[in-house]
Amino acid sequence: MKMKQLALTASAYIRTRMLGRIRSRDQLLQWQEKQILRHIARVRALSAYYRELWQGLPDEQWRSFPVIDKSDMMTHFDRLNTIGIRKDEAMNAALRAEQTRDFRPGIGSVTVGLSSGTSGNRGLFLVSERERLAWAGTVLAKLLPGAFARRERVAFFLRANSNLYQSVNQGRLQFVYFDLLAPADKLIAQMNAYRPTVVVAPPSMLRIIGEAHRSGSMNVRPNRLISVAEVLDPLDRLYIEESFIRPVHQVYQCTEGFLAATCERGTLHLNEDVVYIEKEVVDAELGKFVPIVTDFSRITQPIIRYRLNDILTERREPCPCGSPYTAIESIDGRCDDLFYIPAADDPARFIPIFPDFISRTVIRASEHIEEYEVEQLAADHVRISLRVEAPYKQVTERTVEGMMQELCRQAGCVPIRIDFAPYASERGDRKLRRVRRTMRTANIPDPVGRG
């Protein structure tokens, strides 16, 4: 059985490496279309929900199929998945695993997991054993090419483990799960004992590891650093890379699929060998879009024309690596974290400001800013938390406030009230979001197409 599993992973690894040799965008799109049409036919036959949703529409018109989102997926979970698993059964299994911190049991051979649910709406995912093993092969091919030929010790820092991640244990590759809910000093001690060559962790944890390395409390220097689960803020990237003199690679992975990974040049590319991404344009001039995902690699829980809640920025220049896969400049954050500020010429009208604009404004204000968070509390009220050494505190706050007000002026917004607070780092079950909006926006029109 072990050999069969290894063969499935190796097959996906080889397939991914072979597809990576495609250099023509037209050739890639033609190949994708064939895969999607074959996949759509299977999904229509196996999923009662999609069969009804697509009634009257031929497979060739799949781009006209209705767009769904997390709410639709959770509402119709029982009839959407193709193996007859009920939502309450899956939810109980996933919650039991999180409570006991034993993530090995699933439902039969099916892995069940929960998304982090930063917006309060947690999503369920189902992955078959075959899909798990294929996922492992794809991940290895993109992030650790040559992993089958050399020994690697991988440290995965995650809020919840999963059989999905355990699938990476193949051949010479050793995988150990590090629970993010454990105390930081315990995790650092485990790192010193394990001595990983590869570290996969959210940026917030990579910073803590970087701090431990700088202070001398951690004597490990991994060969590869991979950022997952949170937006990789430019400030965090710089700190981590300077700590280890290593580039930080990225993975864009969520309930809806393995969506993007960095190439050897460090550019984030959409994984268009397993997913098709339609772009719901938010700002054409800036290259910002909301992804609509069709995953043609998974059949257990089909993801077809599924609208995410993220904003991505497409890279303007082609990547030097030569890949035809779409290059991404940045993952800017969630649509829910756009700031909405009243317009100067009409306070009843609201102007959206993208999270990456906020981040860049704060970072540019001072080289003394070590960490920060910006939170919109009300339409004209923002709280900024800064970690900065005491001698630079007052001048840094004045500079940040001036630059934030200038950003508002340039955007055509009213001046805002800014309160400053000390930065308080929080670890555990909350994802780090450097820019977030807690203000309610029920009466504000959504600029990204949701009403």
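The above is record 1. Record 2 follows with the same two-line structure.
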Amino acid sequence: MSFIDHLEALRWHIIRSAIAVVVFATGAFLAKDFLFHDLILGPSRADFWTYRMFCKLGQAVHAPDLCLDKIGFVIQNREMSGQLTMHISTSFIVGLVLGFPYLFWELWRFIKPGLYPHERANSQGAVFFVSVLFIIGLLFGYYIAAPLSINFLASYTVDPTIENQIDLQSYLSTLTTMSLSCAFVFELPMIVFFLAKAGLITPEVMRLYRKHAIVVILIVAAVITPPDVSAQVIVTIPILLLYELSINIARVVGRNKVATLNQQLADNQGVA
């Protein structure tokens, strides 16, 4: 294919992806009550699933402080068109999130014809695993990281006479940043998989720089969570587990590459 033909193919992949995002965004826009009352504003209420689970944990370990009676802030809108603008922008964000597996599939369809047969074979299931890790990370961010951040920031006061009246934009920014950050961080195993396939990283290097990686992980956890030690620990633990999983993935990839190379050498000797 010529360069123009590649651009034409890319254009249609982009068009189909845009249509998918618009379809999901339209559905989210029409489901306004569920989108905002149940989904977006869920972590702002004390009866949210995460808070109820922490309360049950507190009852089990005799720590009543883990139960929330109420969350000490009020969400408000200060602009005339603020709620309409927020409705549209939030629907678009939800459309991107729901359409992510399809978007990645379209990107993969564009890249796949340019790969060698063995590269295609080595990359089977990429769309599935990328989508699964994205969804798991998104759920972790929404149900664990975001509620902990919102609860900490809502309960923090410098003086009891000051009320927390949170702007809608600020609340949504915290929720989406936490959720999407975790979603992309959870893609670490797939990133390591492709880097190991390309020979750019090895398990030995990852083990050698494990201490440095832990420092980076702590910094990432501190950036995407509020200055609350418990929240940082809860976010850090799964990222560390993902790093250790990535080391094993790199080890398996390296072992398979060595086995394939040995098989090729054996076949060449047999032919000779």
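Residues 54 and 60 are 10 Å apart (CA to CA).
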